[in-house]
């Protein structure tokens, strides 16, 4: 297992993933205070000035809590993001502890974050992009596997984690349908260092989305998740009911075309994303309450695994 020293004080080996139009200061602060890494996308603010305001607010609210977990920011490094340079400059100035990059592994971005001692994690859906991320010098790779919310992949976690570990000795995070502490433990047992959880934190009091979206998430089943490129130009998982509510036919969607970050917010505001992890979501707790529950579930699962009769038998032979 490989965890950077900066993440050594976590209560739980997990990251509350940066969710587009969903993660904001309240969610980040409550998660970090609970000993879990809280993150948000820079583009959740409409301008770089607004992004800086959020950075200042989060740092100020976490400063009285030295025991809190570090926070992170997601940067879209795709060429369609016109704010990348300006936002990265502010990230460096604020010495953001963790930067999660998406849609491209850029060595210059990694060097900029490393210049002040920050960490860079990069999300991937396959081996080729993981190899590029490793070559770029990232500290961690997020394996976005089948069933993840947002821009997800289609590979089994058993396959992708094994492939990445064969050439990368840094931190590996697993994303895809993780909603409980027992599932975090399972991610660790299969070879990941941390879990990367989005949908479960979408269904919390602090998430920025509407009550209607939260309730739809709680009421959904895994069969209600549709994987399609038609909404944003990149394959992602969406709630089928939200597609219908937007006046679209989920079975006859018109191709969106190439990814355009400037139009992304408009598309995702009316069609809501979630992952297969909705299957294990039945309530809308506060983020701190959820983190406490995850810690208890994780601890119980690890204890149960240690007492597994097959493990005991193997140790005795």
- How much strand content do the residues show? 5-15%
| Major beta sheet summary | 8 strands, parallel, barrel
- Sheet/helix structural class: alpha/beta
The share of residues in helices is 40-55%
Task: Count helical runs.
Answer: 13
Task: Count all strands and give the number.
Answer: 10
Could you spell the SSE succession in H and E letters? Answer: EHEHEHEHEHEHEHEHHEEHHHH
Q: Whole-number average pLDDT?
A: 94
Which strand order spans the largest sheet, edge to edge or round the barrel? Answer: 1-2-3-4-5-6-7-8
Instruction: Indicate the overall shape.
Output: globular
Cα-to-Cα separation, first versus last residue = 25 Å
Low-pLDDT parts are: none
Structure commentary:
The chain is built from 13 helices and ten strands. Helix 4 (107-114) links the parallel strand 4 and strand 5. The chain is of the alpha/beta class. 40% of the residues lie in helices and 15% in strands. The protein starts with 13 loop residues before the first strand and ends with a helix. Helix 1 runs parallel beside helix 2 and helix 7 (181-189) packs across helix 12 (287-306). The strands form two sheets. It has an eight-stranded parallel β-barrel, surrounded by six helices. Strands 9-10 form a two-stranded antiparallel ribbon. It has helices at 25-33, 48-62, 84-94, 107-114, 127-136, 157-165, 181-189, 199-202, 211-219, 240-245, 261-270, 287-306, 309-316; strands at 14-16, 37-41, 71-76, 98-102, 119-124, 140-144, 171-175, 194-197, 225-228, 236-239.
